[in-house]
Amino acid sequence: KKKIAVMTSGGDSPGMNAVVRAVVRYAIHRGCDAFAIYEGYEGLVQGGDMIRQMQWGDVRGWLAEGGTLIGTARCMAFRERAGRLRAAKNLIAAGIDSLIVCGGDGSLTGADLFRSEWPSLVQELEDTQAITKETADLYRHLTIVGLVGSIDNDMSSTDVTIGAFSSLHRICESVDSISSTAISHSRAFVVEVMGRHCGWLAVLAALATGADFVFIPEKPAEVGKWQDEMCNALQTFRRLGKRKSIIIVAEGAIDSELKPISAEDIKNLLVDRLHLDTRVTTLGHVQRGGVPCAYDRMLATLQGVDAVDAALASTPETPSPMIAINGNKINRKPLMEAVKLTHQVAEAIEAKKFAHAMELRDPEFAD
Ligand code: F6P
């Protein structure tokens, strides 16, 4: 009987519980034993009670729960080979040879490294007599499948990550609330949203709320120009009768010299130049917690099911797959290729090759 484990890692995102539910139930449906690794890589390194077999009823009601009920943690020990060796021993002790990891690019890189190192870890366990040769022979290959759970939607090769639309929805609700008080006082609000080095949440939120101006990392504001551009736009809208001004700024926003642009910088400009009564709202972790929207429940379920199918189809020769969605179709992509492209986006931004960064992020929307 195949034993498949699922874990969540990195920052939590809405829909991670729906992933765990889908993996556990579909693995059982396919005749496998299902396990959950608690507290991310930390649980893998600690082993024992952190690796638990899951039954159908254990994930009842998890579809609509926010966060991740099996926990997540940043784990320093897993970054060292000694930690990964302990993790390998724990997995083998539980009889597990397939691991489905739901997390962001950092977590998925860790997973793939674990897989590439796996044969040498097993060999070392055998050489040090931590396991017998017979056991080692049963576990020469580790199957890894990646699912992308992140509110940032910053992974290349997939259109949407699990949690991004829930977060977007929460941002829109918050901006709607801000709008009514802004209109009452004829105020300007600078709203800072999450997304790390990715502007997806900011752009989509600006579109969905009819914001006046948006700052994102991938299309940096031009030094010496953006101040006039923004003030002119806001003045035009005010002249047309608008009683509020909403500026969305991604937390990773930069100018064309790569200098961060902060919500405070923008506020000061609006006060000094346009004499607008201006407030800053940093939305923070309300964007990340809370129930998943319908889309994320659906995405998590379909991708969770495909992750189990991918694990069952995996061979030592095939590269670790990442479950993506492209043009509304659930798709498998080589995990390391997707991670590499994602890292190249950051490199392109650092090299001021902004158009190339957009292309790497999503070739279809590069313009
Ligand atoms: O990657 C998800 C995310 O919420 C980012 O948008 C944000 O930059 C970061 O995590 C915040 O991390 P922490 O919860 O550790 O403060």
How would you characterize this protein structure?
- With 367 residues, this protein is α/β, with parallel strands linked by helices.
- It has twelve helices and eleven strands.
- It has helices at residues 16-29, 40-46, 81-93, 105-127, 133-138, 164-185, 200-209, 226-239, 263-274, 294-313, 335-350, 354-361; strands spanning 3-8, 33-37, 51-54, 98-103, 143-148, 188-193, 213-215, 245-250, 278-282, 321-326, 329-334.
- It has a seven-stranded mixed β-sheet, with helices on both faces. It has a four-stranded parallel β-sheet with strand order 7-8-6-9, with helices on both faces.
- The model has no long low-confidence stretch (mean pLDDT 95).
- Bound molecules: 6-O-phosphono-beta-D-fructofuranose.
- One of its GO terms (cellular component) is mitochondrial outer membrane.
- Residues 1-367 are annotated as: N-terminal catalytic PFK domain 1.
- This is ATP-dependent 6-phosphofructokinase.
What does the main sheet amount to? 7 strands, mixed
Strand order of the largest sheet: 3-2-1-4-5-10-11
What would the average pLDDT be, to the nearest integer? 95
Number of helices: 12
Q: Spans of 5+ residues with little confidence (pLDDT < 50)?
A: none
The total strand number stands at 11
User: Given the helix and strand composition, which structural class is it?
Assistant: alpha/beta
What coarse outline follows from CA principal-axis ratios? elongated
Q: Percent helix among the residues?
A: 40-55%
Ligand list: 6-O-phosphono-beta-D-fructofuranose
**Rg for CA atoms:** 23 Å
Q: How do the SSEs run, as a string of H and E?
A: EHEHEHEHHEHEHEHEHEHEEHH
In terms of DSSP E residues, the strand content is 15-25%
